[in-house]
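Try it yourself: sequence plus copper (II) ion, in.
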Amino acid sequence: MRPATLLAACLLAGLSAAQAATVQVTVLARDGKPLPDAVVILEPAAGQPVPASQPVSHTITQEKMQFEPALSLVPMGSRIRFANLDRWDHHVKGGAPGLLAAGTTAFEFRLAGRTQGQPTPSNEVLLDKTGPIQLGCHLHGSMRGFVYVSPTPWAAKTSADGVAVMPQVPEGAMQLRVWHADQLVDQANVAVQVQPVTSVSVPTLIQPRKPRRVQFDSGNQY
Ligand SMILES: [Cu+2]
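Structure, out:
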C-alpha cells in the first residue's frame, strides 16, 4: 500500500470511528423566551450519506377530543397507529400543514367510537416521506396534531425550557433545521460545527399561538 493510500485509509478509519458528540440546542421564540415543542434536526452540511434510522412503531390516540401526543417525532419509515379512546367517532386526516386546510390529504379514515369490552378501533399508517404532517378531524374542527418525520437520526423535540439534546452526533459541519407547528414561514437553516461539546442557541421569529400542554410519551427523544 502506498503511504498516501495508507494515510487516506487511516483518515477514513478515524472518521468512521465513534467521534460522536452531544449537541444541545436552545430554541428561542420571537420574544426571546424558550420555545417548547420545536423540532430540531441536524443534517450533514456537505450532503454526506446519513445512516438509516431504525423505524419505530408509535401510537397516537384520540382522547377527550385531542390527539395525544400533540406532536410526535419519528424516523422515516416508521408506522403510526391511531387509536380512538373516545366513545364517539373520530375522523383522522393527515397532510402537509399548508395543504391540509386546503383539502389535500396524504391519508384519511374514520375510526368508530370505542365500545366497552371491544377492541379499541384503530388504523395504521406507514410514513414514507420526510417532513411535517398536520393531523385533523373532519368531525371536530378544533382537533389538531402534528407528526414530524425526520430524515436523519439526529433529531429531538425541545422541552418546556426550549432545550433539545441530541447524543451520538458525528463531528463536522452540519446544518441545523428548526420547525414548529406555529411557524408562519420556514426557518432558515443554521450552520453548526459539531465538536465534542456543542451548545447552540437559535433565535427564531416563531411565536407560539398559546401556551401548550407539555407532554412527553417517552422523553424528548424518539
Ligand atoms: Cu374527532
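One thing you can check immediately is this: Helices lie at 3-16, 97-100.
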